[in-house]
Amino acid sequence: DHINSLSHKRTSEEIYNQACKIIPGGVSRNTIFHHPYPHYISHANGCYATDINNIQRLDFGNNMAALIHGHAHPDIVDAVIKQIRKGTAYTMATEAEVLYAQLLCDRTPSFEKIRFVNSGTEAVMAMIKTARAYTGRPKIAKAEGAYHGTYDFAEVSQTANPANWGDINQPNSVPVANGTPQSVLNDVIIFPYNDIEHTLAILDQNASEIACVIIDPVPHRVGLMEGKTNFIEAIYEWTRKNGALLAFDEVVTYRVNYGGAQQNYSVKPDLTALGKIIGGGFPVGAFAGRSDIMKVLDPRESKLLFPHSGTFSANPVSMTAGHTTMKMYNKDAILKLNTLTQKATDQIREAIKIADVPVSITGTGSMFRLHLKPSAPTSYREAYQNCETKTLINEMLDYLFLDEKIMMINTLTCMFSTVMTQKEIDMLSQALLNMFKRFKT
Ligand code: PMP
C-alpha cells in the first residue's frame, strides 16, 4: 500500500528522474523508451493498459509479443494463484513441467524432447550449445540483422552501423556490444536472409565447421517477411549434406500456427528455441528437438556432452501459466486470431490507399509490421531504417502513444491477442489513417 500510494502521487516524469539516478538511462529494457520519458504502468486488462495517470491505451505490444491472450486473463490468473499458494519454486521437480512438456511435444512433430529455461535468450543459447555438443563443431550461421537475443554469438550482426556491413553478398560479422571478442566474430557466419544463392555459397566456405544454421521463419528485425519455402528447403538440404543442424528460432513465431511457423514448411528443423507466449505472461524459454540430439543433455549418459541446469528452469509458476495459456490457444483460437489480423491488415491497406502514402505491410499470422516504403521490403538491407526514417518512426510511435492512445512495438509492429475484436481493429485502422494524414509530406 505504501508503495502504491507513493507512486500514484507522482508523475511518470518524477519517477523517471529518480530512475535515471540509479538505472542506466532510467530503463532496464531500451526498447520501451517513449519520449521525453517512459510512462509507468498502473495496471492492464485484456487488450488495454492503464498508466499511473489513469490514461488507458490499446496495447498492440503485448509485452513484446509475449502475451497471446492479453493481460490478466482470468483463467491464467486463477491457475497461477492456485500454484503460488503451494509455493513458487522448489529444488524438486514438478509434475507441471512434465504435463506442459507433453503438451508442447504433442503439438509440434519436431519436438521429440524438450527442456525449459527462463528466456528466449537462454533458449537460443542452449540450442546453440546443444548443436555444438552434438556435432563437435564451433561455428554457427545466422542471418544478417536477425535478432536472437543477447547471447554473444547470437547477437552478432543484429542492427549495426550500415558502414560496417560489408559486401551485400558476403556480409561481415559485425559486433553489437563494444568489446565483443574477435573469437566470437570468427565463429559466427552471416548470410543474407531469403537469398539462396549467396547463402549457400557462404555456407560452403565453412562447410565442415558449422554446427547449426539458425533460422527465424519470420524474422522481425530483418523485416518480418516470411522465409521463402525454397530458401528454407535449400538450407535444410545443405545441412543434410554437410553434417550441420537446422535450428529454428520460434521465440516469436510459435504463435503463428498450432505447431509453430515450422508447420508451414515441408522440412522439419532439428532443434527449435521457444519463449514469449509459451510462458503465459511469465519469464520462460524452451528448446526442443530430435531425441538423438537432445541426448547430449541426458545426465544418465556415460558421457554427458552438455551439462545444463538453471535455478529457475521449469519454474512451476511459468509452467502453470504457460500450460493454461497454450491449452486455450487451440486450433480454433489460432484461426480466429489470424483471420482477425488479416482483416486488420486489409483495413490498414485501405487506409494507406485513402491517405495515399508510401507505406507497405509485411507479416503473417497474428503479427504485422509497417514499412515507410511504397512496396514491401524483401531483404534486411531494404527494410533497414536509416537514422532519418528511425526519427520519423519514433515520432509516429509517440503520436500513436500520446495522441491516439495506441501502443506498438518500436519498429511499427503490431502483435495481436485473442481478446481483441473488430472494435479494436477499427480503432487501430482509424488511428493509423489519422497518422498517415498527419505525417504526409
Ligand atoms: N529470439 C527472438 C526471435 C526474439 O524476438 C527474442 C526477443 N525479442 C529473443 C530471441 C530473446 O528472447 P528474450 O527477450 O526472452 O531473451
TrEMBL record:
This is Aminotransferase class III-fold pyridoxal phosphate-dependent enzyme. The keyword Membrane does not apply. Its cofactor is pyridoxal 5'-phosphate. Keywords: Aminotransferase, Pyridoxal phosphate, Transferase. Belongs to the class-III pyridoxal-phosphate-dependent aminotransferase family. InterPro entries: Aminotrans_3, PyrdxlP-dep_Trfase, PyrdxlP-dep_Trfase_major, PyrdxlP-dep_Trfase_small. The lineage of its organism: Bacteria, Pseudomonadati, Bacteroidota, Bacteroidia, Marinilabiliales. One of its GO terms (molecular function) is pyridoxal phosphate binding. The keyword DNA damage does not apply.
